[in-house]
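Q: Can I see a sequence and its folded structure?
A: Here is a first one.
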Amino acid sequence: MDSNLSYIAERLTELTAIPSPTGYTKHATDYLVTTLTDLGLAPTISNKGNVLVELGGTGRPLVLASHVDTLGAMVRSIKDNGRLRPTTLGGHQWRTADGENCTVHTRDGRTYTGVVLNTEPSVHVADEKVEQLEKNMEVLLDENVSTKDETLALGVQAGDIIAMDPRTTITASGYIKSRFLDDKLSASILLGLARAVVAGEVTLARKVSLLFTVYEEVGHGGSVVPADTQDMISVDMGCVGADLANLANEAALRAVRKGRKLVTQEDMLAAFEFVIAGSEKKGSVLTEFEKKLVAYHEVGHAMVAYKQKNAEPVQKITIVPHTEGSLGYTLLMPEEDKTNLRTRDELMAKIAVSMGGRAAEEVVMNTMTNGASQDIQEATSIARNMVAMYGMSDAVGMVALGSVRNQYLDGGYGLDCAQDTAAIMDREVKRILDECYKDAVQVIRDNREDMDKVVAYLLEKETITGGEMVAILEGRDPSAVEEAYASTRKSEDGFRPSQPSVIEAPAKHISMTSEKIEMPPEDKGEDAQTEDKPSTEPETPDTSAENTDENK
């Protein structure tokens, strides 16, 4: 085993020394192909540049994936003083690059070393502190140039790649440090696995292939996998170690409780929900009114999400109280891995989904509860960012009214505008929230009959999947939906996700009813309710005719 660890460390040292920012990865993939070929394997390269190799084995096909592209930068323009103005490749944080050595790779194959600097690097000399933002960063080449023409004469031009110094170090105590452990360490570990399989040190229990992707930092690295793939595991460094260990431990405990020796995808997803919402509070008792109210609240979220074109699909709805304080929650999960890039329509849809619970409370139950507090906070935060940070308001325009103050803490920001402008911003935020709430209310009203059917089933089962909800809405028998984590997304080729065959990505959004709901005072007067006032009790759908087409 020590020899394999040494092999992995050697491959890591060699791999991190190869510059491979997103879009400049050919040298890294050539290295992978050579290394795997030397092991006696037969790697192939896809049109996108991904490297795929089959290790052998029989049984359910599994793909283990890592990526060898890294964060980096590109020459955006050349300044009059001969220095380079960079722009990021991937989600680079310029705070971590200030003072970093780098190498510029030109299109004709030349390389020049340099250093990344703030335009005002000396705080005690500059008149004021300059933040480490992209617009304030530049690359100073290790060349005798002081004008734009002199830099151009070197062959440097806009679009050339800037690779940061990897600074790979293996300490005497065995620790490995490098700017690009993400994700070249994982790639090196997979190379170590390939060596161990070839050497007969590891016996594969199923068919295993390795996939080394080259566009992960821009969000579509593993877009092509073998056609027979049943499971895919991304070996990456995106999870904090303690959180990942906790997730894996919960999944293992669940597998043991179910009498299995292997952890399944269902175990991992169930463990993920446990980490988010906690365990079910078996001893918590809700009144019939509270259960009905929570059910309509959660189905309100789900129905608005189902009807919104740009919303993430519904994965699960539950009205079982959990230890993290929720009386119920609606789980939304994307069908594919996504970056943080969102369109205006997607953000508006997300706000509308958050408003779905309160809309259902008012339209169906003719009341409001404090259970919508978390939803309102989230919706307000999105709307405020749209106006103050994203330039998505016609009234305010494309201007940043705030800046992030605590990026590594709560992500909060402060306003950088006059009070009159702040008042305009508040009115715009209110307008966006009102517009989305109006849309949510309309969805609830237009689909009231369908909601009653879903709520009736939810009250009976207490926890249902998105696939079961779709089955109810389509007049099918929800009990016939076999997939435990079926969602509500439809695809263009007629694929019905209530019976999916793909692994879904981690959850991105969860709506919870998080506060205790107080029972409203009961009005016992017979004449208290007028004809114009809707009933506080929704009509219960007739579920007795179980053999009718409508209830199948």
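Q: Show me another, different protein.
A: A second, unrelated one:
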Amino acid sequence: MFRKMRCLRLNQFPPDSQESLPQFLRIAIELAGGFSSGIIEYRAVAWLWRRPELVTLQMFFDFQFSRRFSSQRASILTIVLFLVSLSLAGCATGPKYETPATDELATFLNESEGGGAPPMTGWRELFRSPELNGLLDRAEANNLNLQAAWQSVLSSRAAIQRFRAAVLPQVDAGLSGETFERSDALSGIGFGGAGDRFDADGRASWELDLFGWVRRSVEAARANYEAEEALYNNLMFTLQADVALHYFQINSLQAEIELLERSQETRAESLKLIEQRRRAGTVSELAVAQTASLLATAEARLYAAKRIQNSLLYSLAALLGETPATFSYQPDALESEPPAIPAGLPGELLARRPDIRRSERSLAEANALVGVAKADYFPRITLSGTLGFAARDWDDMFESISRFESAGAGVSVPVFQGGRIRANEAQARALYEERSLLYRQTVIAAVTEVEDLLQSVRLLEAQSEAIARSVEASSNARRISMLQYEQGVSDFITALDAERTALDAEQQFEKVKRNQYIDTINLIRALGGGW
């Protein structure tokens, strides 16, 4: 069992003679006898004794043994300080953690060709919109989920100090007093006695971290804190992306709403004109019915767009920690284009993603927990001492005759635990393997998400160019058909079809532009905040 500790393997110590050890260390090793057998030899302790970290301890030993202590106290002090030195220079059980390497973080399959855009990071730098910046500031300051996540970060940070405290001596003090009268029947001498008793003492205890139980616990707590911090950053990043998505969708819908409102006004005027011509007998009832149908279609699309926009506005209010009644925002038609995606994106950008960072830190925590579980195989050594005063009379309380003291050490060795320790180690190792697999899956999912968004952005750009040509052609067709109708070359039905086609193309162009913003923002989020 003890040979599992790699830092105490004897073949790692340089050979030295026993004479290189001070006499008191030889005494301590002899007293430690059976415990030291097979674990610590003279050459190992001599090697430890000459380490620079223990120079101060050497000076302390030399000073203490130059004084005339009794041999009994000197022996006790020797053993205690020897154990302290081992604790300071001890090792930690368990495997050493190394960040896992992944082959997936390379170049992307669907990256764009041609020249790349300059590096940019963050929503503010990417979009340069003062209005969006204001919404982001309000969301970061007021979002309740984000504030709750920060409290979780503070909790995990406090846990680090809680584990760190275990490596330090624990000191307590007490003061008590009582008045008593004991039973005569129970005294054995027929006289119970009565009086007062006062006690004041200080107690100190220190569990030596010889085998790294505390150090591995601190390591696990720190990794958990970093994982919680990554989760907070992930929530912050997701919140920023959601605010940006809502902002651009709301303003894109505003452009579509304004288009539909113009179409509604135009078709309402056309319906009045067609009704006048019907009364004059120049057009049929069919032209009136088709014009009314186009007007009703434009109104229905307008109401649908407003419904979606209102839902997004209410959702944006919730992201900012407000209610629809207290939230106020005036949408503005979106006219700008989404930022261009540069070519040659390196796969290492994914390492910035908070979810990958959190998964990696959770893996580091599981690795440290393996060390905690392995440390349970080894003995636990505790040093303790008490110094105080006890007296029947308060006036004698702090006199020399009332003083008492004690010092001691204890060793707890697991002998039979019913398989509990081995089960804890197996559980810790299984947790490590689980999180290792989840880390790889997180990386694969991230790469897949980026690849999907890259191809989507690229195809949406091509689709937008095609629809832009469609908008231009349908607008020309609408203009020509209306001109021909007014000149009597074509009928009104042809003009109505051209109007319907032009409106569909214009509305589809706004929808594709909105999807371009959605996929671009999601791609920026998937890449960890920029490029």
